[in-house]
Amino acid sequence: MAKATAGMHHITAIAGDPQVNLDFYSRVLGLRLVKTTVNFDDPGTYHLYFGNETGEPGTIMTFFPWAGAPKGRVGTGQVGITTFVVPENTLSFWEERLQQFDVKVTKAQRFEEEFLQFEDPHGLRLEIVAREEGPNSQWEREGIKKEQAIKGFGGAVLYTGAPNKTASLLEDVLGLTSAGQEDEYLRFRSDGGLGNVVDIKLTAEPRGEMGAGTVHHIAFRAKDINDQKDWQKHLADSGYHPTDIKDRDYFTSVYFREYGGLLFEIATDPPGFTRDESLEALGQNLKLPEWLEVHRTRIESILQPIDKN
């Protein structure tokens, strides 16, 4: 069964203090907080979702923030670098903006593209690239106009313990197209307008250790739950071991561990973030799954208050 994902759905990472996390992604990078909820597996912890104005697949950066969380180590078995994409001719704006917030920026080249590389306050490795493809975000905040705003994901750089097997997964199982090799990187592309470039770093990195400043998993898109069920079978037939379908309220998820050590997810595009909040109110209220509503008072007493303004 030939299948191809449209590209990345979301990336989920671990952070430290939730207020620091929120301030950086909403006030410095200008992303919209599209959902404030909890880690369904650990309801005493926030799960914060950032994206464009609607939280469209391909724009969704999510975090499990724990105040005082031990710092992790970025390395093999993880997404090493998360890439955001901005409109063409805006890299100088972003370089100046990051420097205004005392964020150290370095420049890198890959596949004839220039990247601004930096870290968030908890050590997560990020980069910004400018490309024409992909729709502009319509969200404006903190001095960032629509013509400058982060569109969503440009892609990701994978640090894998088995580069050839990870490459085979991307091309032969997930349906991405090989875009060649440059020095220590392989590049693959999908047909989506955002989250459509995945690079594999071929040289070895130390083994990653989970903690603040590291990516927990990377998710790719399924059209709907029927497509997701096809993906589940396709993955099993390809020698992987996908989980049962998990209901995450705003999408459903299937997880599997690939041979290079990374945790992958297949997530559905629907139902999206307006299923329980209006577009205007996205992210402003603590939303809980139905089965946790009975515990709302206790959960709210545990969670650290955060200022969303």
Automatic annotation (TrEMBL):
Matching InterPro entries: Extradiol_RC_dioxygenase, Glyas_Bleomycin-R_OHBP_Dase, Glyas_Fos-R_dOase_dom, VOC_core
Name of the molecule in the record: Glyoxalase family protein
Organism: Alteribacillus persepolensis
Pfam family, one: Glyoxalase
Domain called VOC: residue spans: 7-131, 152-269
UniProt xrefs under Gene3D superfamilies: 2,3-Dihydroxybiphenyl 1,2-Dioxygenase, domain 1
Residues in coiled coil: none
